[in-house]
Design goal:
The complex is a heterodimer. By secondary structure, chain A is an alpha/beta fold. Chain A is 26% helix and 28% strand. Chain A has helices at 18-27, 54-66, 99-111, 173-176, 192-203, 221-230, 281-286, 321-340; strands at residues 3-6, 9-13, 42-50, 70-74, 87-88, 97-98, 115-118, 122-126, 131-135, 139-147, 151-153, 169-170, 184-188, 207-211, 234-235, 238-244, 251-256, 261-266, 269-272, 276-278, 308-310. By secondary structure, chain B is of the alpha+beta class. Chain B has a single domain (23-132), classed as Glutaredoxin. Chain B has five helices and five strands; from the N terminus they run H-E-H-E-H-E-E-H-H-E. Classes of the chains: A alpha/beta, B alpha+beta.
Chain lengths: 345, 155
């Protein structure tokens, strides 16, 4: 297999397409994705998708295949939450794949159909048909817009949390739970997600304890009962003050807010489910309606503003890659049908 | 033009030869190609390199082929120490080929000569934009095996 070195550093193993090779040469390490630059100051299109995670990329593929001229804008890293997931084991068809690798596959696939503008943030959206969207680089005139801006997990904000993230601290039991089968873990949170995930952890054989800050679970009654019946211990009125461990999590320091007593609990894993923060800053700017939980309100992916749609984690749901992809595909097809029924601008 | 008596392989070779001659004819500039070789050192590869270049050179006067021993002052000038080494238009470009341009790589070598001859790289605008951003020097070395059946052609 051909090997290319630049200044004695291996930059390409195997043959690469020309543009990708140039990028490897520039970055001085092997690149796997080449997203062509675009100088255009104004781009007319049928659909602008905001967000380059699974929902946005899937929507891009479906919209483009439906015949809609489509672009995807991503202000940050492509892949969204997936890019941060060490290992994905629940994406159908792929038994086990690194999150980054899955993102590469998704992005490469999407690039077959859509132009992706990375590092491009939407600054303003002028209503009307068509919509005018300005970014930090250019202007888009578009018939429709899909908000697939995703969500981020809330953090506890305690010492050790970010340092040990991915080393025992996790925000995703579905992703990382199986690694802790037979080990002691704590589940921080008392809402629907935390209880569901605690049950999931118990189910896969982890010795789980729930840590909740008030004296009553916030979860639905059915879930709370299930938790009680499962025999999972719950530490009420307890907050995590610190997560400790050298190379990986070894213990958490908790404070009982009633007794003011502090204690250390030995644990191999700290799962945190204290809620999601949907990325709705753009939605707020546009003024689309939101649910009481703060997600974008939608019906069949249509938001309260005509021409603006939403899909993926930003509308709530199960926060799974496969569901986000499914929502993206459905949203794209909804948009396609809606645009079919309206005269071209 | 193939005649009824021609062997199909021979006729296709003739066609390639004619195509090459026409292409070389269109090249605006002469291309010096220099082979450095030392008898007794990788003779098989040196012979293959020599034969390939002699073949191209007899098709056109645009390829000016010269050969020097590794002791020659030209070898010192271009800092050549490996036998065989081919330099393509060394006064103008820093392109060197160690070993022999045989197998799939023969075609790549020919492409390199044509790019130099026409003074055009054929790279895309997107590639050019990336290259424009590289401000410091890159010394590129590409290692290939002529016998590798899976390596797709590349520039």
């Amino acid at each position: 297999m051909p090997q290319t070195f630049a200044n004695e550093t291996l930059i390409a193993l195997g043959a690469q397409p020309e543009e990708l090779f140039m990028l490897s040469l520039q970055k001085m390490e092997q690149q796997t994705l080449f997203i062509p630059d675009n100088d255009a100051e104004e781009i007319e299109t049928d659909l602008v998708i905001v967000g380059g995670g699974p929902a946005g990329l899937s929507a891009g593929i479906y919209a483009s295949r439906s015949g809609l001229k489509t672009v995807v804008l991503e202000r940050n890293i492509l892949g969204g939450q997936v890019a941060l997931t060490p290992m994905v084991e629940n994406y159908p068809g792929l038994t086990q794949i690194g999150g980054k690798k899955l993102v590469e596959i998704l992005v490469s696939h999407a690039l077959e159909y859509v132009h992706i503008f990375q590092g491009e943030e939407v600054l303003t959206v002028s209503p009307g048909r068509p919509l005018t969207i300005t970014t930090n680089r250019r202007r888009f005139i578009t018939r429709a817009m899909l908000l697939a801006t995703g969500a981020t997990h809330k953090h506890l904000g305690v010492p050790g949390e970010s340092r040990l993230s991915g080393r025992g601290v996790s925000y995703c039991t579905t992703c990382d739970g199986p690694l802790f089968a037979g080990q002691k873990v704590v589940m921080v949170g008392g809402g629907d997600s935390a209880v569901t995930e605690a049950l999931h952890l118990k189910n896969i054989g982890a010795d789980v304890t729930v840590i909740h800050w008030t004296d009553k679970l916030d979860a639905q009654d059915v879930l709370a009962k299930q938790l009680k019946n499962s025999g999972i211990p719950i530490l009420f009125n307890t907050v995590v003050k610190e997560i400790s461990g050298e190379k990986s999590v070894e213990s958490v320091t908790v404070l009982n807010t009633r007794t003011n007593e502090t204690k250390k609990i030995e644990t191999a894993g700290v799962f945190i489910a204290v809620g999601y923060l949907p990325s709705v800053d753009l939605a707020d700017k546009i003024g689309v309606a939101k649910t009481p939980q703060g997600f974008i309100q939608q019906e069949n992916y249509r938001t309260s503003v005509p021409g603006i749609y939403a899909a993926g984690d930003v509308v709530g749901g199960f926060n799974q890659i496969v569901t986000a992809s499914g929502h993206g595909a459905e949203a794209a097809l909804t948009i396609f049908r809606d645009l079919l029924n309206e005269p071209k601008a | 033009m193939a005649t009824p008596h021609d062997h199909p392989e021979e006729s296709s070779q003739k066609e390639i030869k004619t195509q090459l001659q026409q292409m070389f004819k269109k090249m605006p500039e002469e291309i010096p190609v220099v082979l450095f070789a030392r008898p007794g050192k990788n003779d098989v590869f040196a012979d293959a390199a020599r034969q390939a270049l002699q073949y191209f050179a007899q098709l056109t006067d645009k390829i000016v082929f010269r050969e020097f021993d590794l002791d020659h002052k030209q070898a010192k000038k271009w800092k050549v120490s490996h036998s065989p080494t081919l330099l393509i238009a060394p006064e103008k470009y820093a392109i060197r080929w160690l070993g022999a341009p045989v197998g799939e790589e023969g075609r790549i070598f020919l492409e390199a000569i044509l790019y130099v001859g026409f003074g055009q790289t054929g790279i895309s605008d997107a590639s050019r934009k990336v290259l424009d951003q590289i401000k410091d020097k890159r010394h590129i070395k590409l290692f290939v095996s002529p016998s590798c059946p899976t390596a797709p052609p590349r520039r």
